Amino acid sequence: MAIGLTALYLHIPFCESRCIYCDFFSSTQGDAVKERFTTALCSELAARSNEACGNSISTIYFGGGTPSQLPTRQLLRIFDTIHANYAVETDAEITLEANPEDVSTAFVKALMGMGVNRMSMGVQSFDDKILSFLHRRHNSDKARAAVREISDCGIGNISIDLIYGLPGQSIDGWQKDLNCAFGLPISHLSAYSLTFERETALWRMHEEGFVEETDDEISLRMYDLLCSRCEAEGFGHYEISNFSKPGYHSRHNSSYWNDTPYIGVGPSAHSYDGKDVRRRNASDLEGYIASEGLTGHTLEVLNEKDKYNDFVFTALRTREGLDLKSLEERFGRNRTRFVNEVAKRHLRIGLVEKNGSILRLTRRALFTSDDVISDYIIID
């Protein structure tokens, strides 16, 4: 009998082409490799089912890469393997990331038949010039059509991703992107400030002087516009970069922030046992396939400092905030005293707000959250 809940993440590393800003582990190899990968993934799923420890699976998330690049027959093999080896909750949230160009009525209907009830669409922008610059394969018309097609098929839980602070993007352009987004039948929006990740094509363009980073003040205004618009549209701001209609927050992503154990399969996937151990699979597709999903991985055993840092960092990223009572129960009075001392300074300058035992970042601090939260982190 199931005794608790576990989340399941599957990393599908395939992309038709690589976007210039992306540093996620991915491959542009073709169908023959996808077939072999699916065999390896199913092998890993079966081999690691004991890590659920009797828990049932509450959420399943296909991320990447581009999971919609897998043919439906391979996705069906994966789902069959999941159900043969894990107890999946009847109301499990099952998400698949997709790119607009992969969406068709037949594909969405097939996904629904497998149990997919949530789709996350990598739109990034509704400006065709920006999409071309980013090396995205869809245009704005295709993005809008894909979202509507998913909705028309009967999936009511649709998320889209947008990026702001893009080269050539103006405040007015960002406003138009938001207008387009909220003109569609979406229930969730994730929006991220562009970062120049090392070794990406975008980073190299920046290093060579072809592209400049957007001024922080402009990006801050874009973030403020995002927050205001989402609030006006009834989308709750539940995490720094995530907004949703009531009842449509990402249950899977929330598991990363509330200490739920999760199993990650596929090359580069991360796992956490809910107690002391984190695991990361090697970022090696060929090795993964050759070993039938049992390739190398690294384990990290968390000490009390690590657990404290994770607890504080994830809690302060959410609008639920950091519960100081829970902090003291788990980590003792000294840690709580330290947090309160830091919070005194942040309260004076408007970076946090306190309501009873709950400490939250203010809206002003959300844009620079990493800098603010770092003050609460124990280094040694």
UniProtKB/TrEMBL annotation:
CDD domains hit by this protein: Radical_SAM
GO molecular function: 4 iron, 4 sulfur cluster binding; coproporphyrinogen oxidase activity; metal ion binding
Keyword Phosphoprotein listed: no
Compartments, as annotated in UniProt: Cytoplasm
SMART domains registered for this protein in UniProt: Elp3 (SM00729)
Record carries keyword Transport: no
Domain Radical SAM core: 1-236
An annotated GO BP: porphyrin-containing compound biosynthetic process
Similarity comment: family membership: Belongs to the anaerobic coproporphyrinogen-III oxidase family. HemW subfamily.
Function: Probably acts as a heme chaperone, transferring heme to an unknown acceptor. Binds one molecule of heme per monomer, possibly covalently. Binds 1 [4Fe-4S] cluster. The cluster is coordinated with 3 cysteines and an exchangeable S-adenosyl-L-methionine.
Protein name: Heme chaperone HemW
Organism in which the protein naturally occurs: Pseudoprevotella muciniphila
Species lineage: Bacteria, Pseudomonadati, Bacteroidota, Bacteroidia, Bacteroidales
